[in-house]
Specification:
Helix 4 runs parallel beside helix 5, helix 5 packs across helix 6 and helix 8 crosses helix 10. With 533 residues, the protein is of the alpha/beta class. The N terminus and C terminus are likely disordered. The protein has 18 helices and 15 strands. 36% of the residues lie in helices and 15% in strands. Helix 16 links the parallel strand 14 and strand 15. A nine-stranded mixed sheet has the order 1-2-9-3-8-7-4-6-5, with helices on both faces. It has three domains: 57 residues; 226 residues, Rossmann fold, CATH 3.40.50; 173 residues, 3-Layer(aba) Sandwich (Rossmann fold). Bound molecules: adenosine monophosphate. This is RNA helicase.
Length: 533
């Protein structure tokens, strides 16, 4: 992973310090970036005049001073690792990869990071699966001491960080500890891993089955779309770890062939995605059937309110939170970002005006983001009625319709598409010229993700965002993103204030600890996916 490991002494410092060489690289990169940004900014201004979309008089924004370490990291946060500046394209913003750990008593000696496999104290047969790795990945290094000591843990880390073994090895140790020499045969599962999709479940299961061969821990993958017969036979003969998607697990419980009463180690992987896909009730019901004295691990790429609520309900009141990610939320500098503050009701008319501007040829790819599937249907219908050739992807469409819409958009037969965040997640769509945010997303992270659909592969792109009174809570964060990319900040946006909620990390951890339990619930977005069972 190419990360610079800090020694254990550094771990007790309240905030991370940069290593001197890292500072030098960053300073040089910042200098180059500043120059480049100045050029981009001039070009952005010229383009902006061309498209006449707003008349902000905001002067060129100074580079937003990043008060690095600091206030952003919560009191008990301990940044344990600072990575070398990422070395992407020349316009890539300089970011630090951090591991930030928060929680009660995290500085206890027993929670010191596991910097080497030999220092982990894990049995040889359990570590067999790591033999090709040089050292524990940052998430493993931080998560293992907490998980092996029975703490509940929230991990904010993406696939690719080594998170499967970060929870997988403690899961196997949990089984070995409970089993005390007895074989799996004939017993109910002791660990459960819930995954939102079949693909992810299978991926986790492959890792766990492989890791379990040397230490005799048996795992099984349970997901829909395949025959239940072999899954039932495996369950009957006894298993240690069950990995699966919520729908099939619920089915098997209802059939009486799967009992979770002995499950005392639970992992929710991609918890945010699981809830986005409408699994909240099933997940709650499944969790309710596990042993009341259990250890819980939740991994999530983001931390929305619904995930926060789930954690509050089912986890220890003082879970440890390990965040792997960049401290600086930054947009792609190849995207000219235009933000237009307007009244909710004028968006339809304005959208049509923008399409006449950006999509006149009806040949270039334009992607319009909305928030909810009903909104997607409504906007699609309105545009159809206005004579626009448009397709959409959202959760109310069948998989067939979604695949078809996407291929029409991709092959250029219909280069105008409406999409919800959930349906568009993970899609790789080349050559999108303009992204229009008809509705502002629920988080600024999603905003950055959406606009990143354009300005790819060295090309320039345009994003045009509607911002309404309803979104005012995110104004401060948006201003920061715009300033960081040297974009024009409209006066109307500044009127909402530039306050940014205190949080542990800009990229992750949004809302955690910040939102009271009686705050209004966010709307559930359901997702008709064939992965459901
Ligand atoms: P994951 O995030 O669990 O999907 O893992 C991503 C990839 O990282 C997989 O190919 C793992 O085999 C690999 N991996 C897991 N742990 C380590 C490690 N400690 N060092 C290097 N690679 C690892």
């Amino acid at each position: 992973m190419g990360k610079k490991q800090h020694d254990a002494a550094r771990v007790s410092e309240p905030v991370a310090e940069e290593s001197p060489d890292c500072s030098a690289i960053k300073a040089e990169k910042k200098k180059m970036k500043k120059k480049k940004d100045k050029q981009n900014q001039d070009s952005a201004k010229r383009k902006l005049e061309e498209v006449e979309v707003q008349d902000s008089t905001e002067p060129k924004t100074k580079k937003n001073k990043k008060d690095k370490k600091s206030k952003k990291i919560a009191e008990e946060a301990v940044a344990v690792e600072t990575n070398d500046a990422q070395n992407g394209g020349e316009d890539e913003s300089v970011r630090d990869e951090h591991v930030v750990v928060t929680g009660k008593n995290i500085e206890d000696e027993k929670y010191a990071p596991t910097t080497t496999f030999s220092a982990s104290g894990l049995p040889k047969e359990v570590l067999e699966c790591c033999k090709s790795f040089e050292k524990p990945s940052p998430i493993q290094s931080r998560a293992w001491p907490f998980l092996l000591n029975g703490r509940d843990l929230i991990g904010i880390a993406a696939t690719g960080s080594g998170k499967t073994l970060a929870f997988g090895i403690p899961a196997m140790m949990h089984v070995l500890g409970k089993r005390k020499g007895k074989a799996s045969k004939g017993r109910n599962p002791l660990c459960l891993v819930l995954s939102p999709t079949r693909e992810l479940a299978q991926q986790i299961s492959d890792v766990m089955c492989d890791a379990g061969t040397s230490c005799g821990v048996e795992s099984i993958c349970l997901y829909g779309g395949t025959s239940k017969g072999p899954q039932i036979s495996s369950l009957k003969s006894g298993i240690d770890i069950v990995i699966g998607t919520p729908g099939r697990i619920k089915d098997l419980i209802e059939m009486g062939v799967l009992s979770l009463k002995e499950v005392s180690f639970v992992v929710l992987d991609e918890a945010d995605r699981m809830l986005d896909m409408g699994f909240e009730q099933i997940v709650r019901s499944i969790l309710g059937q596990t042993c009341s004295v259990r250890q819980m691990v939740m991994f999530s790429a983001t931390w929305p309110l619904a995930v926060h609520n789930l954690a509050q309900e089912f986890m220890d009141p003082n879970p440890v939170k390990v965040v792997i990610g960049s401290e600086d939320l930054a947009a792609n500098h190849d995207v000219m970002q235009i933000v237009e503050v307007l009244d909710d009701r004028s968006r339809d008319k304005r959208l049509v005006a923008l399409l006449e501007k950006y999509h006149k040829s009806q040949r270039n790819r334009v992607l319009v983001f909305v928030l909810y599937k009903l909104e997607a249907s409504r906007v699609e219908k309105t545009l159809h009625q206005g004579g626009w050739k448009v397709v959409s992807i959202h959760g109310d469409k069948s998989q067939y319709e979604r695949t078809k819409a996407l291929s029409l958009f991709k092959n250029g037969s219909c280069p105008l598409m409406i999409a919800t965040d959930v349906a568009a997640r993970g899609l790789d769509i080349p050559d999108v010229e303009v992204v229009i945010n008809y509705s502002f997303p629920l988080t600024t992270e999603d905003y950055v993700h959406r606009i990143g659909r354009t300005g790819r592969a060295g090309k320039k792109g345009v994003s045009h965002t509607f911002f309404t009174q309803q979104n005012k809570g995110l104004a401060g964060e948006l201003v920061n993103v715009l300033r960081e990319a040297n974009q024009i900040v409209p006066d109307d946006l500044l009127k909402f204030g530039t306050h940014v909620k205190k949080k542990e990390s800009k990229l992750y951890g949004a809302h955690f600890k910040e939102i009271s339990a009686n705050a209004p619930k966010s709307k559930k977005i359901t997702f008709d996916d064939s992965d459901e069972d």
